[in-house]
Amino acid sequence: MAGLTKSEFANPVINWIDTRLPIFTMLQKEYGVFPTPKNFNYFWNFGALAMVCLAIMIITGIFLAMNYQPNTELAFNSIQHIMRDVNYGWLLRYVHQNGASMFFIVTYIHIFRGLYYGSYKTPRELLWMLGVVILLVMMATAFMGYVLPWGQMSYWGATVITNLFSAFPVVGPKIVTLLWGGFSVDNPTLNRFFALHYLLPFVLVGVVFLHIAALHITGSNNPLGIDVKSPQDTLPFHPYYTIKDSVGICVFLIVWAIFVFFVPHTLGDPNNFIPANPLQTPADIVPEWYFLPYYAILRSVPNKLLGVCMMFGSLIVLFVLPWLDTSRVRSARFRPIYRQLIWVWVLSFVVLGYCGMHKPEGIYVVLSRVATLYYFLHFLVILPILGKLERPLPLPESISQPVLRGRGGGPLPGSATAKPMEKA
Amino acid sequence: MGKLRSLLAGVFAAGLLAAPAIAQEDEMPNEKWSFNGVFGTFDLAAAQRGYQVYANVCANCHSMQMLHYRDLSGIGLDAAEIKAIAAGITVPSGLDDQGNPKEGPATPANQFKSPFANEAAARAANNGALPPDLSLIVDAREGGANYIYGILTGFGQPPSGFKMQDGMYYNRMFPGHQIGMPQPLQDGTVEYVDGTPNTMNQEAHDVVTFLAWAADPETVERKQIGVRVVLFLMFMTGLTYAVKRKVWSNVPH
Asked: Least C-beta-crowded within 10 Å: which of A12, A189, B36, B232?
């Protein structure tokens, strides 16, 4: 089906290009007039925020790579060279280092949004699964990035995490040797982690593109979780959501800037200011905060293989979530029981993170076991059964209806009658 | 399988050993630092006195390899002063005509001279202990400046019944209370040229100010830029929010 596009752009240059390669028409269709549900709340900002994170991380990362030396003899000092001698190197590095945390905060909230409003349910299963792939690639990238400064936590974190793969029978030790490029974490490990840390973000860009492509086929979910019924339910993406996302981006950048400029070390570990020393194990090996919940799951199980399987399983289970949740109602607003239980799940995740910070002894063992149990119970048992038992509240007829005739359905914070001007 | 197990077991055991020590540890000092807070800057006079303490006392055992003499402009020394400081220090300076290593006066471009040629030499001279490099010491310890201050002022006699190992010194702040470093600072250890009273606490405070600067020399510039960035972003937030209200004003939602 070859043939020129009939472009509607008046500008002759744009028209000329667009006729031959309709990127402007595509942008106009997907980001200009793209029909978007009119009832998004600010939770729908977080996808855009994650995109902003990815872009900033790639840009700062490229400039850091120009001054970084992926060699065990030079890596630690080259970071200090960036911090002290490269013009605004400290700024690049703090933005990048704290950016990893910002990226995870935003992504976790984005995922929570999906869980709360049922964004994973048909027809958005594949969109959701691509999101889980993004999460996994992000985690691998973040882990390898943390190894690069070659401090004590870098080295020992890499040792502990790569060793996890040795739990798998038969192939385990071979995988570990392959990851290390030798028989311990050493220069080859650092080299390949640097290569992969540079590669994976671009893989992320690819998967994010697919994630967004899938989103633009199914259209966005919305806080009511009901389908768009008529053009009355939607608004063009621009200017309504470009401006709403811009507000979110500004607020988000304030938070990021506060970390970068005023408390750049708060999210890091003092041990990583000590050069890696294979002969001296730090008193306490803790991963970065965004891995703590999974670390707690790992340590809550006395058997290593089972612990590793449960740790990976806690993420893999997300792939099949669309089929585990048997309820056909998407939004938690109309699911009185799920609405409570999703918070219990969040609590279990937070408790796991808290336990991950502490040595696995005493109360923390008990707490992390209970939380791990609920984490899995929630997905594997409660969601399949709850969908059959729960009586959802009546759904509104359309997205516009609750606005035009008072809100239907579940209890909502604030008054029952919409007051458009006050809620802008 | 065994590796992680033993690793975690090691961590666990270390935790058990450290636990009683932590329980009786001295409270973290809560000094007033010039560089704390959003608008905090380094007290340059204190940092310069601190450099004097470092050069006269600490530098006998501790290196600061991340620093160059030129960096001292950051604590307010001018080019001539830095040149004079560097010129007073002899460092290896390449090869002579015969290809033999030679020595000469340092220049501002030189790294701070390390007291020992290598780790083995440092350990041999210090009863087997390695004096850590001080470039990042304030960032590399939980508690930061207060912890370093606590170590420097935490020496004393062990309580009765506390068993000391040979060649170790009692320190209230140090985990386990036995430190390989003898008490470095006492009242009158250095003679300040600016007439500041040279009490131990003053010396410790000054040298920690210097070390805090050395660990994060960009601190002041960073905070100054930060204030402007945050103010700008707050202004942008207000602006975009106003535009958002305007754009959405005709939509019932």
From this structure: A12
Measured CA to CA in angstroms, residue A408 lies from A221, A228, A419 at distances of: 18, 16, 15
Q: Quote the distance between the C-alpha of residue B129 and its chain's center.
A: 19
Cα separation, A321 vs A311, in Å, equals 16
- Give the length of chain B: 253
Instruction: Report the distance separating Cα B121 and Cα B177, nearest Å.
Output: 25
Return the SS3 of B1. Answer: coil
Q: Say which residues have a Cβ less than 8 Å from residue A181's Cβ, sequence separation at least 6.
A: A188, A189, A191, A192
Q: Do A273 and B229 touch (CB under 8 A)?
A: no
> Which among A83, A284, A403 is the nearest to B253, CB-wise?
A403
User: If we measure between CA atoms, which residue out of B242, B244, B240, B248 comes closest to residue A235?
Assistant: B248
Phi, psi for residue B179 in degrees, rounded to 5: -120, 145
- What is the model's pTM? 0.91
A37 DSSP β-pair partners: A234
What is the C-alpha to C-alpha distance for residues B65 and B52, in angstroms, rounded to an integer?
17
Parallel, antiparallel, or unpaired for β B101-105 and B169-170? unpaired
- Choosing among A82, A86, A246, which should be mutated to test the B contact, i.e. which has the most B CBs within 10 A? A246
One digit per residue, the tens of pLDDT, for chain A of length 424 reads: 588 989 999 999 999 999 999 999 999 999 999 999 999 999 999 999 999 999 999 999 999 999 999 999 999 999 999 999 999 999 999 999 999 999 999 999 999 999 999 999 999 999 999 999 999 999 999 999 999 999 999 999 999 999 999 999 999 999 999 999 999 999 999 999 999 999 999 999 999 999 999 999 999 999 999 999 999 999 999 999 999 999 999 999 999 999 999 999 999 999 999 999 999 999 889 999 999 999 999 999 999 999 999 999 999 999 999 999 999 999 999 999 999 999 999 999 999 999 999 988 899 999 999 999 999 999 999 999 999 999 999 999 999 886 555 544 444 444 444 444 443 3
- Pick the closest to residue B57 from B200, B176, B217 (CA basis): B200
Tell me the three-class secondary structure of A80-147, residue by residue: HHHHHCCCCHHHHHHHHHHHHHHHHHHHHHHHHHHHHCCCCCCCCHHHHHHHHHHHHHHHHHHHHHHH
∠ Cα B118 B122 B128 (to 5°): 130
- Helix (H) or strand (E) holding A332, with range, is none
Catalytic residue list contains A422: no
- Contact of A177 with chain B, judged by CB distance below 8 Å, is answered with no
Q: Is the dihedral of CA B127, B212, A267, B66 positive or negative?
A: negative
Nearest to A303 by CA among A164, A127, A182: A164
A261 phi and psi angles, rounded to 5 deg: -95, -25
Q: Which two tokens stand for residue B90?
A: 């002899």
Q: Compute the nearest-CA separation of B191 from chain A (Å).
A: 31
Instruction: Say what the ipTM of the complex is.
Output: 0.89
Catalytic site residue A174?
no
Cβ neighbour number for residue B210 with a 10 Å cutoff: 27
For residue A264, the chain B residues in CB contact (below 8 A) are: 222
Spatial CB neighbours of A394, under 8 Å, sequence gap ≥ 6: A334, A408, A409
Q: Kindly report the CA angle at B117 between B57 and A272, in degrees rounded to 5?
A: 75
**B30: helix, coil or strand?**
coil
